[in-house]
Design goal:
This protein is α/β, with parallel strands linked by helices and 244 residues long. Helix content is 29%, strand content 26%. It has a single domain, classed as Spore Coat Polysaccharide Biosynthesis Protein SpsA, Chain A (Alpha-Beta Complex), CATH 3.90.550. The chain contains seven helices and 13 strands.
């Protein structure tokens, strides 16, 4: 199984923290970055075949990993137009090197380590993290679920039955190739500033993506300073047990 870590974004909403560094190297603890946290969770689950997509400060990411994780098998895919495209184009760039099932996750996710273990052990070959118990934040992904199948994913979903979705996917190679084919169509039409999930929505009536519920656990994107402060509090405070 391959892991795809999406790290080509600019992280502008973190302000000064990403002016001279990639978002994944923002510290969540004194001696731990977002990237450290994710790689440690992946290693715990014996996931060591990792594709990291890069945008700004690619050299800093490579140097950091070489220094701190010299034994990991890493593949780097650079998006040279990261400032003009969304990650739909970044995923398009990796299409030639995917030959296995995948774990796909955004490079700013902090999640309970048992979440990764649990989704790997799920009987469903194609699933994504969903939580019905929290109110979906306006800025985050949401899903519409009918008959325990996801029929739509997006940020700007306003339907009252939408639920919170965290962009950590477990996908079979067959499923991912179908998604990649649709992404390829979007790129050919120059639709490169939208979400990759927009391409996925176009085919969810033909393939089955199941929700994997993570109620009472944590999986959160660090989009801005408020998110970062929340994660830092969780790592230090009484809710730390939900993260480790």
């Amino acid at each position: 199984m391959k892991v795809i870590l999406l790290n080509a974004g600019m992280g502008k909403r973190l302000g000064y923290l990403t002016q001279n560094n990639p978002k994944c190297l923002v510290k969540i603890k004194e001696k731990e970055t977002i990237l450290d946290y994710q790689l440690k969770q992946l290693i715990k689950s014996n996931l060591k075949d990792i594709i990291i997509t890069t945008g700004p400060f690619e050299d800093k990411i490579k140097k950091y990993i070489k220094l701190n994780y010299p034994t990991l098998k890493m593949h780097y895919v650079h998006n040279p137009i990261y400032d003009k495209t969304n990650y739909i184009y970044t995923i398009y760039l990796i299409k030639e090197i995917i030959d296995d099932d995948v774990i796909l996750l955004h490079g700013d996710l902090i999640f309970s380590d048992n979440l990764l273990r649990d989704i790997l052990n799920s009987k469903d070959p194609n699933c994504v993290l969903v939580n019905r118990e929290i109110v979906p934040p306006e800025k985050d992904f949401k899903a519409i679920i009918i008959d325990e199948k996801i029929i739509q994913i997006g940020v700007n979903i306003s339907r009252p039955n939408s639920v919170f979705l965290a962009p950590l996917y477990k996908l079979s190679n067959k499923f991912f190739k179908i998604w990649l084919d649709q992404i390829n169509k979007f790129v050919k039409d120059n639709r490169v500033d939208c979400y990759a999930e927009d391409a996925l929505n176009a085919i969810l009536d033909k393939i089955v993506l199941k929700p994997f519920y993570f109620n009472n656990k944590i999986c959160k994107e660090i989009d801005d300073i408020n998110d970062l402060k929340l994660i830092q509090r969780l790592l230090k405070g009484n809710n730390k047990s939900k993260l480790i």
